[in-house]
Amino acid sequence: MKHPTPNAAPDAAPAPDAKSAARRPIPPQFGMDQALWAAWLYYEDGLKQDHIAEQMGISRASVFNLLQKARDEGIVTIAIDPTRIARADLALRLSAATGLSECFVLPAGNSTASLHEQIGHLGARVLENRLGETEVIGVAWGRTVMRLSQLLTPMQRPNVTVAQITGSSAATFDFSPVLCTSNIAERLNARCVNLHAPGVVSTPAVKDILMAEPSIHQHFDLLRQCTMTVFGVTHLIGPTLLVQGGFMSQAEMQVYIDKGAIGFASGHFFDIAGNPVRSEFDDRHITMSHDELLNVPRRICVGGGLPKVGAICGMLRNRLANVLVTDEATAHAVLAEYAKG
Amino acid sequence: MKHPTPNAAPDAAPAPDAKSAARRPIPPQFGMDQALWAAWLYYEDGLKQDHIAEQMGISRASVFNLLQKARDEGIVTIAIDPTRIARADLALRLSAATGLSECFVLPAGNSTASLHEQIGHLGARVLENRLGETEVIGVAWGRTVMRLSQLLTPMQRPNVTVAQITGSSAATFDFSPVLCTSNIAERLNARCVNLHAPGVVSTPAVKDILMAEPSIHQHFDLLRQCTMTVFGVTHLIGPTLLVQGGFMSQAEMQVYIDKGAIGFASGHFFDIAGNPVRSEFDDRHITMSHDELLNVPRRICVGGGLPKVGAICGMLRNRLANVLVTDEATAHAVLAEYAKG
DNA sequence: AGTCATCACTGGCACATGTCAATGACGTTT
DNA sequence: AAACGTCATTGACATGTGCCAGTGATGACT
């Protein structure tokens, strides 16, 4: 009889309601969200939920719900300064050895969550922290990137553009380029620009035709303005997702492997020494070019797991990333690999 | 026998310590601050303090202490998105009426804290949120600015410069220009540039000489690069702090009042219509010029209280501020004043 | 060497918070 | 118009947190 929004019209407003004692002595009509008010009183004024409930004329449980809503919606942000994590000496040593400009290493907690989950989590924090008012973010795809997108704190970034780096795969991943991109844009309340083209086409000629298409061409113009890219990294050993997911055939993959490729990231293959590995597949793959990628100032790679160590080393030597988010075990292994040669 | 830092050398390391059950199964040696680790597990992984204590091999109370340290030191930041507060319709209407680019209105809680305290608090949040990696912040002085400086969250901003807008007053305020400036710089871990000159000198000639002095000249060159200014606002009615604090004499003040001045902010007087009010005092006052101030992109004024309403209106019309942080009652009053004429 | 001050850590209690099933209002369907 | 589903809200209970005084270790001073 008091709560259902401040439109107190229905119940005779001036009615000297029985136990009205402390009932909304200040019917706030705050013009602002109740959750915001509660959050302010709780987090900034340090009041207890009891007091807030009393002041707002609602139950304490409702205050709790409002606070939770405030956290969920990003009205209140609880953030750990990721630069502190980078400072951890492991990260520092890794940066020094590889030439990364920044490196974030996940503490080796006993967390039960999957590695993708955990690295995506840390990656989300890093992305948020590195995010300016105005950005153009190029997004590739992958399981970790997908988790990252889901773990971003909702925020208002109307001047940020999130663009898809690579064509939409025909395959049905649950972490497709389209999903990764739109998820991130949604969380940031940013402009979402999908690439309305297949990821791989049948002949180079088709690629040429598509690339000449104004709408596609325009998209790649946008990509050249990227201020950051976000992507995962894949190794090629065993039954990889690239083949399993239907992104490419085993035969196509084998060509790269035969040429010495060890990994794949943001649309390009490379060997363990960091040299690009190319094949005719590249001429049919619709994605941002290698040179263009290297022109992006901040290139964030999220990924870890021991099988990926070789791929990560190759990618780092290839310079595709200058920011790496990974886990402790992988960081150690990469460091060892670099020490080796 | 376990806690005093991880240099576990003293107690025979391999000793099969009696109740060693869960004793630091992972003596982390994290290379990183324990507080950081605890904060990560608590705020990001959502573990309970009990679990964390177990994992880290310390008592729960210590975990609590670590978390508090993490909050105190700014490792963990809990922030309310101030843009939401700006969105509150009162703030919106005020922005629309006055031409402010942003406006933040303090919720009218029943807080017992002083108005300076509360507005300083909100101002601190606004400043933090608007702070880029690289800034030059010009700081004036006042009680509210002082509170703001004390309520800033500690953070690392090595590329920020905090510069004093106005000469150091001979008077002994507990909120002098020097203190306001150095406090803010300290909190931000930014470069602090004080103005080593008196605020008011005896004759215009002395001012001219000082202004020609290389070190002073250089300071004003720096001030011209300000990306934001932070200041309070004073009314001139009754025994004002300007006179009481010994900043200027009652006679000097009276000249301004006789000319119609109603307020004073960031070193300049103005009337209720927003016209600058000048006197010979200005020629002896060592401070950033009015024109230079108006060239600063973001000009944040913190202040409220009904006696200041006239002064705030004048200041807004004078354009000295384009961002205002105030309380609800004052906001209403200012809005009413604008509606009037 | 002995004494004292300081500091970090902890046990345990009082209190604050998180959770959940029950409640009642409202809108929708038959 | 009655029956139903949905949703926000709540009271009461189970946990988790905040705090303080007590303890032992360390280092400084006499």
UniProtKB/TrEMBL annotation, chains A, B:
Region (Disordered): 1-25
Domain Sugar-binding: 88-336
GO MF terms, alphabetically ordered: carbohydrate binding; DNA binding
Keyword annotations of the record: DNA-binding, Transcription, Transcription regulation
Pfam families linked to this entry: Sugar-bind (PF04198)
Compositionally skewed regions (Low complexity) per UniProt: 1-19
UniProt KW Transcription regulation keyword: yes
Key word Hydrolase present: no
Domain of life: Bacteria
Family: Belongs to the SorC transcriptional regulatory family.
Name recorded for this polypeptide: DNA-binding transcriptional regulator LsrR, DeoR family
Source organism: Gemmobacter aquatilis
